[in-house]
Amino acid sequence: MPSISIDWSKVNNPEPIFQRFASRRSVVYGTKGMVSSSQPLATEAGLEVLRKGGNAADAAVATSVALNVTEPSCCGIGGDAFCLFYDAKTKEVKALNGSGRAPAKLNIDYILERGLKSSIPLTDLNSVTVPGAAAAWIDTIENFGSRSVSVAEIFEPAIRLAEEGVPVSEIHSWAWQRSEGLIKKASLNGDEMLLNGKAPLPGQIMKFPNLAKTFREVVAHGKEGFYKGRVAQAIVDLIQSKGGLMDLDDLANHKTTFVEPIKYTYANEVTVYECPPNGQGITALIALGILENIQDQGLSKPLLEMEHNSPEYLHTLIEALRLAFADSQYYVTDPDVEHIPVEQLLSKEYLASRAKLFDAKGTNPRVVHGNPANSSDTVYFSVTDQWGNACSYIQSNYAGFGTGAIPKGCGFTLQNRGSGFVLDINHPNALKGGKRPYHTIIPALATKDDELFLSYGVMGGFMQPQGHVQVLLNVLRGFTPQAALDAPRFCISAGTPDAESSSTGLAGDINSEVYFEDGFSKETVEVLRGMGHDARVISGFSRGLMGRGQVIQKLQDPSGRFVWAAGSDLRADGHAAAQI
């Protein structure tokens, strides 16, 4: 029986990146704080707070707020946020769920009466769930922060950027141009997020004076500055003017949820943490468990002994992820409303039974969810500090700019997370007033012997758990954080929602296409097609389907001091930077 063995000499002393992949970036090292995000100016905002004495949580919020200004095509105060925090003193991992609920008065019958059938369209304002990001920021600061810096100091870099203006980055400009029509159509307030009626081009300066005012309300009044008063009224006025049912009580009643993270220990050595449902992080844990059982049962060679990204290796990962998605797409919903068998889904017995469905020679023709009772348009960033704490943080509008609708005078778009509900009353993820939908955004952390090992994540709709698995296994193979991100990735067809093309907010068909980005050999793709995979190759901006990740790894210097090693995905505009 093959046994899984991690070669820690390779993990702790990875080969230089240039020996593995041609890259424009190398690993960033530091001994104090580290910030890795998809926008350089947002990274600098986090570093600014670290320099003032803030910890990883404080700096994560500063980075998050700044990303609202530097990358609004992916995130904003009109969306949601999730967080995992590693406390170096207690060696505990804590989780925060900052997702909002559907309006209390909204139900399936109301949607069906409007002529809709399978899901709420991404551009329909009934897809707007209560935005959770603002409350998540304040709760992150109050519960995980250092108390050495104020809310005003944490928000100050983003407010400065919003008022003085930011030059728009290349990849973000492309996303903005693609969404120009959506922003113009979604509300009468599109000019608040356009430059002279147009999406800004690379290098053009965008100012967000109304967003700065919204931030100042939160600084002055805390959560009430968003969920009550002027901003709340503007949100409700816009949604109700378009036939939506959200009211002021829905906003006033919003609360962040502090939850126990879920985890899976891979190879008896590396414990991976994810936020529990209603997030899809459990998908990554199920996949890791299935992969481990495939190897333990002798159904494949040990993964780390296979050639990286060989047909055999890719086939094994793809099939494990398909099995994992079959379960998560069915069972993941709001645990406050529906029972989710988390413990059973991650049990040894259940994972072993799912692994038996793996065929090393070809694809399983039709993967469906199991019965454990009986047996990504997002920004992710990572922050660590000089004390050894880590904050793995993610926020999103869901599909790009979300609905594209801007509450008057507020400077942000509203998310469309509610399009992830199913309009089938018998489905666990069925739409119901006051309920949270299946959520794609997921941060991750990994520990070894209770010590922090990785703070990481990969943004991008349903790609996210797939990215978590691929990047983690790359690191365990001995890749540097940068090489682990640079390596070519695949994405099974769960895909990413797209409001601009009017695609659904529901997950795709896991039994159909598998997308491979440039970097895989033609021979590899052809072998996978011969094994039954409907393999498609994508390039250029389409590679955005593969998500954009950040990784910070904790290493130990021979002197005994820890060293942060960080990588930032070249599929985005950002970078990692160290505090001095």
UniProtKB/TrEMBL annotation:
> Coiled coil located at which positions?
none
**Highest rank taxon of the organism:** Eukaryota
UniProt-recorded name of the protein: Gamma-glutamyltranspeptidase
